[in-house]
Specification:
By secondary structure, the chain is an alpha+beta fold. Helices cover 46% and strands 18% of the residues. The chain contains 18 helices and 23 strands. The strands form 8 sheets. Strands 11, 12, 13, 14, 15, 16 and 17 form a 7-stranded mixed sheet that branches. Helix 1 (25-44) packs across helix 3 (81-96) and helix 7 (175-189) crosses helix 11. The relative contact order is 0.19. The model is unreliable at 540-562 (pLDDT under 50). Magnesium ion (MG) binds next to loops.
Length: 562
Amino acid sequence: MSSLPTQAGGVPVLVLREGSNRSRGRDAQHNNITAAKVVAESVRSALGPKGMDKMLVDNFGDVTVTSDGRTILDEMDVQHPAAKMLVEVAKTQDNEAGDGTTSAVVIAGDLLGRAEELIDKNIHPTIIIDGYKIASEKALETLDKIAMPVDLKSKDYLKKAAVTSMASKLVAEYKEYLADLVVKAMLSVADKQEDGTFRADVDDVKVEKKTGESLGDTTLVKGIVLDKEIVHSGMPKRVEKAKIALLDASLENEKPEFDAKINIENPAQIAAFLKQEEAMLKDMVEKVIATGANVIICQKGIDDMAQHFLARKGIIAIRRAKKSDMEKLARATGGKIASSIDEISSADLGFAALIEERRIGDDKMTFIEGCKNPKAVTILIRGGTERLNNEAERSIHDALCVTRDLVQEPRVVAGGSAPELEMSNALKKYAETLPGREQLAVRVFAEALESIAVTLSENAGLDPIDILSELRSRHEKGETWAGIEVLSGKVQDMTKAGVFEPVAVKKQIIKSAYEAASLILKIDDVIASGKSKAPPMPPGGGMPGGMGGMGGMGGYPGAGEY
Ligand code: ADP
Ligand code: MG
């Protein structure tokens, strides 16, 4: 199968490079589907509040503990091209909605598994894709029908949705407390549009983390927190009415890029040289001070001598601030980032009521509060360990996204697989109105939506068959919001359980799952160039102990051999 030989007058013609790999038709479909199913299987057990966490170890031995679908897939470093497509879909889901990645991948995996059965029954993939398309459209319609509008004036639903998104994470113990912070943060950065709707950007909320006592000490700071200390101990630790110069230029003498030699013949020349250097630094510092600034935040370095000059003038300076922080600071303080010292003028300065360096845990951080633009906020995470903080950051990101989704489109559905069951039910009824083969595909789509109920129950140690049949019959009787509440283990009205999610997340799950499934089903020929050899091992040879499992996933050779 390697080099695609074709006969021409008895002579084989080689079209592909020696060593190329080709699989086509059923083989290719089977391989791709299996690979995608393996990926879906690997995130399945993380779904829902009773889902398990994953521990992922990368090439360098760094450990991540998470139940976030996208993070699991990212860290897995998947190699198989079809499996990679599923990973891409998880990314899209994350970028568009910010939550629901696990669900999207689970449904996509199920759609593919069921499509495979149809293919084995000689139903052409094109028919299946068409069926899935109408099914996904119908499912979206159903979601639109059942979604409940919410009033943003009461923050109730915003908070409930934020709590739901964090219920399935390591930080669940603090979900109520963190949800409060998240909702406050998001509402303070939301912009009201002329037509009365809101726009909000998750990036406007800065998230910083520092190990501390517990997640319960996480705070919402009205302003910007920089993980930086003031450069010189002689500078003040606190300045009120701060006038801030934002510099994207260094306060250092430029070093020559090539090896320059200076010939010095006597001590006087050394002194003159040093003096000249000092004068140049002083000149730079004075140019900045002339603008009236009493705080300098610099994206690049600040020379020791310049620090000394600034300290003597009682000016606060911070160096090597991150570019993203500089942009946030510019927005928050109303300042302009100057890219050269000669360029800066007093009109470019930003303003804040207070700048102060505070000790946080073992470190010092700088707080910029009372900014000109009151929309600037920071969530400062204070979990006990770094790993917990990283997972808290991801969970807070999800919760921020969910809140943003709701602020922009204030409609919710209840969770616990209630909406999936409702869509499934509608699709089954709809399928009966369709002719033969398409009917099959739509029915299969309906069944795939039930995989959320099955997975949530399985992860909670409940019997999925019992639960599914109860759910089906209660939806049949018109109980739109009947779902599985996994904490109590009972089928119940999920609106009473207070489990709410933005309809935008659910819609995106359907779109992402359909897209992934149809992309993979459309492929009937995989030609892999034989050029690339196995990727080189990381330096140090191999991974630290215990990595066999994930490594195996990474070097996934071909689904057929799995
Ligand atoms: P995703 O990455 O898809 O968001 P999660 O692990 O966050 O995956 O799980 C989300 C699912 O868990 C949703 O379907 C949501 O309705 C469900 N869920 C959340 N809380 C509960 C609960 N108390 N009972 C049942 N299901 C819940
Ligand atoms: Mg979630």
